[in-house]
Design goal:
The chain is 47% helix and 9% strand. It is of the alpha/beta class and 485 residues long. The protein has four domains: 239 residues, TIM Barrel (Alpha-Beta Barrel), CATH 3.20.20.70; 91 residues; 32 residues, no CATH class; 52 residues, no CATH class. The relative contact order is 0.07. InterPro entries: Aldolase_TIM, DUS-like_FMN-bd.
Length: 485
C-alpha cells in the first residue's frame, strides 16, 4: 500500500483530527493520552524521545513506546529530537510499526535542547534539516511531520515552512512563539505567523499557542484557517478542554489515577507532575498538602493526598467557603479545572530599557541570604537541614572562614602543603620536581624511588646469572634434573 501524503494522510490516517494533544516531555504518557482521548482529544503525540538513546537502548524503547502499544491510543504520532540524519532515520525505523507518523521536534526551546543541539536550536541549519526530513520521507513507511517555532519575521517563517514541505514534511505544527519566548518571557503566541504559513503551504497545518478553552480552539481555526489545534498547558490543567467542559479537579485526578493502575508501568514522577498541574490553584491555598504531595513515595500516597484535597474542597463547598478562598484572578473557584495563565511580559519603556528584562531579572533573582538577625525564613531546604544538624552553623558570607590563597591561582591552599599551594598547582609542581606532598596525597618521589629500586634489582639478577661459569651451569642443571627421593 502506497504511503499517504499531505491532506490524504490527515483525512484518512488521522481521521481529520482537529483536537490534538501536544508532545510533552514526561507528561504525554499513555495514561494521560487515554484520559485526554476520553474527553475530546482526537490525536495524541508521545513525549519527545531522544533518537540516539532510542537507537542504542532497548530498555528505553520498551519503557517509552513498545510497552505503551494500545488499540485505544490511535491515531498516534511519535516525536523524536535529533541532529543527525542517520540516527534520526534509525530511530524512526524502530518506531514506525508502533505509530501512524514520525515527528521531528524543531520547537523545544529549553536549555537542555541548547546543550544537546536539537529542537528550536536547529532552526537556522536549513541544509541539515532538509537532509533529515528528505531521508526520513524516502525511507520510512509512515509519513514524516515537523513541529516548529516561528522566527520574528513572518517572511522568514514562511520560507522555513516551505523548505520543510519541499523536503517531504507531510504535516506541519506551528507554535506561534519565537525561540526566546519561554518561561517568564512566554508572552502571547502570534496567530498571524501561523495564518501566513497556512496560506503558503499545501500540507495540513496545526496551530499551537494561546489555547486554554474550547472557544480558543474555534477562534484559532477561524482566524488562521488551520486544520487542527494543539494544546499543551491548557490540556495539562484541564484534560477536558476539547469538550468545552470544566469539571471538578478531583474527577479528572481520580479518573487519571485509575488509568495509571490499568496501564502500568507509569513513572511516579509523571503522576506526581500531573497532580501538581491539576491541583495547581488549590495547592496555592492548601500549602501543607503541597508538601505532602511532593514527599510521598508511592501511587497510593499520591492518591491519598488527592483524596484529602477533594475532601477539603467539598467541605468548603458545603460551608460556602469557596468564595472566600477564590483568587480574584481566577474565572472559576480553585477546585474547578482551569488554565494557569502566565503574566504577559511588560512592553519596553521609552528610554530603551526593557521592563521585560527587569521582570526576567526579578524572576531569576537568587534566594536572599540569611538575614543579619539570624532568621531562617529565606534559607533553602538544604541549608535548613544543615542547620537542624548543627544549630550554630552560620551561612552569612561575612562569618565564613577565611582561607589563605594559593600563590599561583588564588584558590584556597592546602593547610599542610609542602609548597603552600592548592592541590591542582601542587600536583603540577610535585610532578615536575619529582617530589612528595603528604598533605595532598601525592607520592611522585616515593614511586620514582620504588621504580628505580626494582630496576636495579632486575639488573643485579641478570648480571649475576650472566657471570656463572659453564661448570657451575652444568652442576646447577644436574641438580635440577635429579629425581626426588
Amino acid at each position: 500500500m502506497a504511503k499517504l501524503q499531505g491532506f490524504e494522510f490527515w483525512r484518512r490516517t488521522l481521521k481529520g483530527a482537529r483536537f490534538v494533544v501536544a508532545p510533552m516531555v514526561d507528561q504525554s504518557e499513555l495514561a494521560w493520552r487515554l484520559l485526554s482521548r476520553r474527553h475530546g482529544a482526537q490525536l495524541c503525540y508521545t513525549p519527545m524521545l531522544h533518537a540516539q538513546v532510542f537507537v542504542r537502548d532497548a530498555n528505553y524503547r520498551k519503557e517509552n513506546l513498545y510497552n505503551e502499544v494500545c488499540e485505544e491510543d490511535r491515531p498516534l504520532i511519535t516525536q523524536f529530537c535529533a541532529n543527525d540524519p542517520e540516527v534520526f532515520l534509525q530511530a524512526a525505523l524502530l518506531a514506525q510499526d508502533h505509530c501512524d507518523a514520525i515527528d521531528l521536534n524543531l520547537g523545544c526551546p529549553q536549555m537542555i535542547a541548547k546543550r544537546g543541539h536539537y529542537g528550536v536550536f536547529l532552526q537556522d541549519e536549513w541544509e541539515l534539516l532538509e537532509k533529515m526530513v528528505k531521508l526520513a520521507n524516502e525511507k520510512l513507511s509512515v509519513p514524516i511531520t515537523c513541529k516548529i517555532r516561528v522566527f520574528k519575521e513572518i517572511e522568514k517563517t514562511v520560507r522555513y515552512a516551505q523548505m520543510l514541505e519541499t523536503a517531504g514534511c507531510q504535516l506541519l505544527t506551528v507554535h506561534g512563539r519565537t525561540k526566546d519566548q519561554k518561561g517568564a518571557m512566554t508572552g502571547v503566541a502570534s496567530w498571524e505567523h501561523i495564518k501566513a504559513v497556512r496560506k503558503a503551504v499545501n500540507i495540513p497545518v496545526f496551530a499551537n499557542g494561546n489555547i486554554h478553552h474550547l472557544s480558543d480552539v474555534e477562534r484559532c481555526i477561524q482566524e488562521t484557517g488551520v486544520q487542527g489545534v494543539m494544546s499543551a498547558e491548557g490540556n495539562l490543567h484541564n484534560p477536558a478542554v476539547f469538550e468545552g467542559h470544566s469539571p471538578p479537579v478531583w474527577e479528572m485526578a481520580e479518573e487519571y489515577l485509575e488509568l495509571v493502575k490499568l496501564h502500568p508501568p507509569c513513572s511516579l514522577s509523571y503522576v506526581r507532575a500531573h497532580l501538581f498541574k491539576l491541583w495547581h490553584h488549590t495547592l496555592q491555598i492548601h500549602k501543607d498538602l503541597r508538601e505532602d504531595l511532593a514527599k510521598v513515595k508511592n501511587l497510593e500516597g499520591l492518591a491519598d493526598v488527592s483524596k484529602q484535597l477533594r475532601l477539603r474542597c467539598q467541605e468548603h463547598i458545603a460551608n460556602r467557603k469557596d468564595v472566600d478562598d477564590q483568587d480574584g484572578s481566577l474565572p472559576f473557584p480553585h477546585w474547578i479545572c482551569q488554565p494557569y495563565v502566565r503574566p504577559v511580559p511588560k512592553e519596553p519603556v521609552a528610554n530603551g530599557n526593557s521592563q521585560s528584562s527587569e521582570v526576567k531579572k526579578t524572576v531569576c533573582q537568587k534566594r536572599a541570604l540569611e538575614d543579619s538577625d539570624g532568621s531562617t525564613e529565606n534559607l533553602s531546604k538544604n541549608k535548613l537541614k544543615k542547620r537542624s544538624r548543627n544549630p550554630n552553623k552560620n551561612f552569612c558570607p561575612q562569618h565564613k572562614s577565611k582561607y589563605i590563597k594559593c600563590d599561583q591561582c588564588g584558590n584556597p591552599k592546602g593547610n599542610k602543603c609542602v609548597f603552600n599551594l592548592c592541590r591542582g598547582c601542587c600536583k603540577k609542581k610535585a610532578f615536575k620536581e619529582v617530589a612528595d606532598c603528604p598533605s595532598h596525597g601525592l607520592r611522585f618521589k616515593t614511586k620514582a624511588e620504588r621504580f628505580q629500586a626494582e630496576e636495579n634489582e632486575k639488573k643485579e639478577t641478570s648480571t649475576s646469572s650472566a657471570q656463572l661459569t659453564p661448570d657451575q651451569t652444568d652442576l646447577q642443571g644436574q641438580s635440577q634434573a635429579q629425581p626426588l627421593l
